[in-house]
Design brief:
- By secondary structure, the chain is an alpha+beta fold.
- It is built from three helices and nine strands, in the order αβαββββββαββ.
Length: 149
């Protein structure tokens, strides 16, 4: 092999190694920040691993319980088929209330309690997050687009 071909081969190997390293770093960064959405039924059928997830549905009427510490709240999210109990410590959004759509982000504990570190509520009277509307459709509820009827 001539010195010129050897040099080209080394440069090509370095370029491929650099490209592979950059690809691995990008994929690792995506994997660390990827958050999946589950409805309560999806969560029961296919429990996720230890990564953070989002669970969404309607806040069940009569399920909101404020704990004595004043900042922790427990409530139930339902897709009208299955229920998930959520524990959240912090200030809830102003629009949070029973019977309304919410999305909670956090982790599912082994005992089935969902520990949320963020709770998002709908923003007006007729809007429901599209992922929540789709979950309700799969549960057999009639939902038109992102509007609840």
């Amino acid at each position: 092999m001539t010195p010129k071909k050897k040099r080209r081969l080394i440069v090509l190997a370095l370029v491929l190694l650099s490209f592979g390293t950059a690809t691995a770093l990008v994929l690792t960064a995506f994997q660390d920040h990827l958050v999946f959405f589950y409805s309560p039924s999806d969560l029961q059928e296919h429990p996720p691993g230890i990564r953070g997830i989002r669970v969404g549905g309607l806040v069940e009427a009569g399920s909101v319980q404020r704990q004595p510490d004043g900042t922790t709240v427990r409530f139930t999210i339902t897709d009208l088929k299955t229920k998930v109990t959520v524990s959240y410590t912090g200030l809830l959004p102003d629009l949070f209330r029973e019977g309304q759509g919410v999305v909670a982000e956090g982790q599912l504990r082994p005992d089935g309690l969902f520990e949320a570190h963020e709770v998002l509520a709908k923003h007006d009277e007729k809007y429901m997050p599209p992922t929540v509307a789709d979950a309700l459709k799969r549960a057999g509820q009639h939902v038109t687009s992102t509007l609840v009827q």
